[in-house]
Every structure is written in structure tokens, then in C-alpha cells.
Amino acid sequence: MADVRFENITFHYGDKCILKNFSLTVEESQIMCLVGPSGCGKTTLVRCLLGFIKPETGAIYVGDRCVFSAKDRIDVPPERRHIGVVFQDYAVWPHLTVLENILYPMKKMRMNRDEMARRAKHALEQVRMVGYENHLPSQLSGGQQQRVAIARALVSSDEVIVMDEPITNLDAKLREEMLQEIRVIQHDIGTTILYITHDQEAALQLCDRMAIMDYEGNLCQLGADEDIILRPANRFVFEFIGVSNFLSLVQQNGRAYIDVGEKYPLDDCPMDIFASGQKMEMGVRSNDIAFDNTSPIRAKVRSSVFLGSEYNYFIQLGNRDLRVQQNALDVIQHGEVKEGQEVGLRFLQPRYYPAKEQKGGNA
Ligand SMILES: Nc1ncnc2c1ncn2[C@@H]1O[C@H](COP(=O)(O)OP(=O)(O)OP(=O)(O)O)[C@@H](O)[C@H]1O
Known about the structure:
Layout: E1 4-13, E2 16-26, E3 31-35, H1 42-50, E4 57-62, E5 65-69, E6 74-75, E7 84-86, H2 98-108, H3 113-126, H4 142-156, E8 160-164, H5 172-189, E9 192-197, H6 200-206, E10 209-213, E11 219-223, H7 225-230, H8 235-240, E12 244-252, E13 255-260, E14 262-265, E15 280-285, E16 289-291, E17 298-306, E18 310-317, E19 320-327, H9 328-334, E20 342-347, E21 351-354
Parallel strand pairs: 3-9, 3-10, 7-8, 8-9
Antiparallel strand pairs: 1-2, 1-4, 4-5, 5-6, 10-11, 12-13, 12-15, 13-14, 15-21, 16-20, 17-18, 17-20, 18-19
Helix pairs in contact: 2-3, 2-4, 3-4
Adenosine-5'-triphosphate binds near residues 13, 18, 40, 42 and 43.
């Protein structure tokens, strides 16, 4: 097993800076999810690691091996980096059988026959595809094809596997199953996995640690999923992970109010947030809004949707619509609120951030 280290990686496409002095360590035998919005540079980072493109600065290490260093002019070719890869579009060869697909990278590495057979058998067992050796990809479901791609990555490297949106093309149930399988496979063999996604739900289910990139390709937080959810480093992380609502705040006569057309006092709000003179907002996650009839913050239930394990409510508070999510078990315990009903609201774990600047124009 090996850790993966990116040190001060800079990369441009033309004039456009995609990664600037980007550093990240993926610890050995862990699943690290690199999460960020579309276009932020995740795949670019993976391509640097695999050796498909060359950063302008920095170094990349896989365990003790330096696979790239701009300063020392090291640039190990992709096939000698020994990194397993699973891409979104499966990338299994359509004209090769399952077994031939799995043997392919080992043949390229010129491995001996017995070792190839042993590894292929083991990888097929790990992804539960024994019995499908002679099937062509066209005879397999999307999930089975993806398992073949994982088996092929496993035989390429038992040290490091990179997965770039590997389950995006699968239906919801299969996605869930594949996440479980990736977790079980990783647990059994202890491979280091760098998992790239813009799907925060998948990341939360899968990872040991999460790295969050913002739109500009900066690493804005690195931590266990609890850290990211409970202690978001900034507004971007708070908004990107989980479902959140934002409400404008004002202060009057030393007291803070939510301003939603009508003003509701917010007694727990620390007044020092107004010290900078900036407009402030309160962010609260949808599952951190509780119904409490004793609360003076009065709102109206516009709609209620049952989603199996949770209820989704759309609530009108003054001139704002809020989304509230409640666990189905809590609803069973405390009772469902009905459309049209008036409710009192209580905000748990609110966060305070400067308001975003409104963009002008009609665009
Ligand atoms: N070959 C290329 N030439 C020029 N620009 C590119 C090229 N490949 C990617 N880009 C640009 O680089 C930026 C980063 O792309 P990248 O594919 O790394 O993003 P990403 O975070 O992986 O996005 P997604 O989640 O949508 O896959 C984007 O603005 C993209 O348009």
C-alpha cells in the first residue's frame, strides 16, 4: 500500500489556471474522496497523477516513489506508475472478454503467466464476477461492467486506485450497491483509493476522509466527513455539502432579527457578527430546522413530500421559502405537519456568514 502526495502542483490549460500550488496527501489504505463542483479541476489533478498531462510546477509521490518532479525533471510514463484507474464510462474494451479485459494491463506490464492467472482469479472473486470470464461487455449490465473495470484496476495496482466518477452512469440502486462494494473491496485489500466525484452523497457514504475543492481549484477543507458537516471551513463548504437555507439578518437596537419581509427576533445570535458592518446571513441546514409551537417564528407549511426515509417540507417564512427535512422516525414520533398548517420554527446549529454580493444585470 502507498500514500499519494501532490506537492505544489500548478497546471494551466492555455491561459487558464486550473490548479495553483495544489497540495494534498491521500493517506495509505484510506478512501479519500475529492469533491468539488463541475469544472473545478478534479480530473485535471487525476490526469497529472496518471501521467497523461504534465504540471508546470511541483512533485507527485506514490509511496516512496517520485513519479513526477518539475524541479528534478522526473516524469515516469503512465504505464510505469502502476496506478489502477476506473473511469466514468467503464472503459472496458468492448471486443475483449471479461477475462481478457482483466489480463490486459498485466500483459502490458509483462507479468508472468502464473502470476497473471492468480491475480485475475483473485480479482474476479473480489468483485464477484466468477463465472463471467468468457462474457463480452455487451452481455453484461452496467454494474457488472463497472465491476470488471474495478477488477482490472485491482490487478494493475494493489497500492493505489483512482476512481473518477465511476458510478455516475448507473441507476440509483446500483450506485448504492457499487458504493458498498467499493467499500468492502477496499476494506478487504486495503488499497489506497482516490475517489473523484461531484456527488457529495456518494462521498459521504464512501470515504474515510474528504477533500473539498472550490470553483477556483483551491483545496478549502480536508477532514473526516463529520468535520466537514459539523465544522465547515467556510460558506462554500457549508453550501456545497448538504442542503442549506440562507436568511438575511439585520440588527436593530442591539438585537438581531431575521429579515424576511417581516422581522423575527433571533435571541441566540451573537451580535459581534455585525462588527464588520457587512450584511450578514444565517445559514441553516434543512435537517437542522425543528418545528416548535412555542417559537415566535411563525411559518406556513406549503407542501409535504414523503421520500421513504424522510419527509421534505417546503415552508413559507415571510417572503422566503425554506426547505426542511425530517427523519421519518422523528415524524412518526412527533406527528406529521400538514399542508396549510401554521408552525413555529427553531433553528439548530445556525451559522453566520457575510451575505453574497448580488450580481447585477439580467443575465
Ligand atoms: N483538454 C482541455 N483543454 C482545455 N481546457 C480543458 C481541457 N480539459 C479540461 N479543461 C477545462 O479545465 C477545467 C477543469 O476541468 P476538469 O475536467 O479537471 O474538471 P472536473 O472538476 O473534473 O469537472 P467534472 O466534475 O465536470 O468532471 C474546466 O474548466 C475545463 O473546461
